[in-house]
Design a protein that fits this description.
Pfam families: DUF3679. With about 120 residues, the protein is mainly α. The protein has three helices and three strands, in the order αβββαα. It has a three-stranded antiparallel beta sheet.
């Protein structure tokens, strides 16, 4: 029994060290993949201020003015059919859930009132 217990403890210790080593290797691999400690990767995003007060951003080599992009996104947001459709479906589902919960609560109240009589 002692030898079995010792073998199990040794095996558990070896596996525990192996798991820790694997976690360290995975961490190092993720850091290399993300580009930490690697100066060869170029900068993906860069934001600068221009002379006339606009903020200019460069993302993956494409340069644009943030205010113009914000206006364009606001214009697209005003007419988003799927967003409006989603809002309508959400309101309908909420109303249906509210009505069904109220009906269920009323039935439970009716049952308790019948029991009290």
């Amino acid at each position: 029994m002692k030898t079995f217990l010792m073998r199990c403890l040794i095996l558990i210790s070896i596996l525990f060290v192996a798991v820790l080593a694997g976690m360290q290797l995975a961490n190092d691999g993720l850091k290399r993949m993300k580009g930490y400690n690697d100066p060869t990767y170029e900068q993906v995003a860069h934001i600068t201020g221009t002379e006339n007060g606009n903020v200019e951003a460069t993302l993956l080599g494409n340069t644009f003015i943030i205010e113009e992009k914000q206006k364009e996104l606001e214009r697209l947001k005003t007419f988003n059919v799927f967003s409006r459709l989603g809002e309508g479906v959400t309101a309908g589902v909420q109303k249906a859930a509210q009505v069904s919960m109220n009906a269920f609560a009323q039935k439970v109240q009716d049952i308790f009132q019948e029991i009290r009589k």
